[in-house]
């Protein structure tokens, strides 16, 4: 038994929850993962993982052991990295997931700049507005909005607050009128982002006042912010999108900002990555780069 390999395999099984997920993550066969766990348990003389045909669960002793070995493995990896740092150039493939519209407008130019600075790292960008699972899709980093992380195997670095703006085309407002308060939106044709956790409910604040507006069913909805902007420009209705999506249209009057005294609830953007990749040089370098890029905005 290779003790370090067996410890890493055990750690990934605990963190990933299944032998298959750990095997995929470590690029091993399930048989190899099972063999390492069996040999480690035989060496220790104790069961670390209970497994049945349907599920596995970590024993109490296994969780105690997991807590102790993580620090040891991290220390070994940190020692390796400190020695290699002076001469090692980060290289390999970095797979990044980004939201479609915000990715094209803001994130992809930064990713291109990162690749230009570090040509030994090849980058694969996955653009999608749907939820991307890092493990299932084999991604190293995902840029996404998140209020909180409910997965202990993930880490997140805050990037920025995404300010959104309520707006509509002059032709639409000429016909439908301009809302004076958030509640007036109930009678307007609001164009909805279908991937929102609550597409038909918009939230606004003004000083200490908060309002939640329940909207009527939309005549037009889309799973992409740029598509919503295009519909609003055509006079189809009111949109609530990140300000960066419509900055040019607001500047030239193609779209008009509405309810300027009211602030839509802000969204935050995070760089999310698996816990076990914190020590990966290419992942760490990319996270540091993207965080700094947003700090300099």
Automatic annotation (TrEMBL):
BP-aspect Gene Ontology terms: DNA-templated transcription
Keyword match NADP: no
Domain HTH lysR-type: 1-59
PROSITE patterns, alphabetized: HTH_LYSR
GO molecular function terms attached to this record: DNA-binding transcription factor activity; sequence-specific DNA binding
Family annotation (InterPro entries): LysR-type_TF_proteobact-type, LysR_HTH_N, LysR_subst-bd, WH-like_DNA-bd_sf, WH_DNA-bd_sf
Pfam families associated with the record: HTH_1, LysR_substrate
UniProtKB keywords: DNA-binding, Transcription, Transcription regulation
Calcium is among the record's keywords: no
Family membership noted in the UniProt record: Belongs to the LysR transcriptional regulatory family.
Name this protein carries in UniProt: LysR family transcriptional regulator
Species for this entry: Aeromonas media
Highest classification ranks of the organism: Bacteria, Pseudomonadati, Pseudomonadota, Gammaproteobacteria, Aeromonadales
